[in-house]
Amino acid sequence: MHLDICLLTDNDLRDVGTFDCGVQNEPLTHYIKGAAFEDNRSGKTKTYLVKDLDKQEIAGYFSLRTCGFGYIEQGTNQINYVPAVELSEFAIHIDYQGQGLGTALFLGHIVPKVQKLAEEFGCQVILVYAWNENAIKFYQKNNFMKIEDLGAFIEAKDINKYLTITDDFSQGCNVFIYIL
Amino acid sequence: MAAIEVIIKPITSKKAIHSIKKALSKSSVDKAAVEQAKKQLASYGFQSK
Questions:
Q1: Closest chain A residue to B6 measured between Cα atoms?
Q2: Which tens digit of pLDDT belongs to each residue from A21-42?
Q3: Is A173 on the interface with B (CB under 8 A)?
Q4: What is the set of domains in chain A, with CATH numbers?
Q5: Is any Cβ of chain B less than 8 angstroms from the Cβ of A79?
């Protein structure tokens, strides 16, 4: 297997057509065939394709975007903000799963990439939202910490509206952080 | 103004405050594992740019 990792472009539309990361990860299969292109163009996320040059197919992909989270110490109004990069999508083609490729990509490429970014811009953690059991196991195996384990949290979509926060965001979703 | 996604984390106890501050002060990065992963990618012909 010979790999290359490159930024998604509109020329990749045909190549992603056969990508399949399994039933459990169906939203990730759909994402790379549709919304990833628009998100890439608009700058909402940047998606990188992992190409198997021997088979001329997509072995996996991941998307990155900036984000952050904050916490408030009781009795103060000050938000302690933690700048982060979100690994918003991370998928391995079903034919390449179970070979350690996900771990190799995360530790050998994504972590160094974000560390390099963090040398120039403030960034303390890599953050992921994990929805299924396999993803949760993967992140736990790779030293991620479940953020809820550090205390209850609530989410605001807009920092200017943080007083109208809902408190049930965490149901059904697990937020993990990897500290740089 | 562009929306900014923020998770607000209300800390309600000194223990929890200590917990998150302590967590953020310790890196998750296992340097040996990172080097091993880079070698694995290199064995696939991939070179970090």
A1: A69
A2: 999 899 999 999 999 999 999 9
A3: no
A4: 3-179 (3.40.630.30)
A5: yes
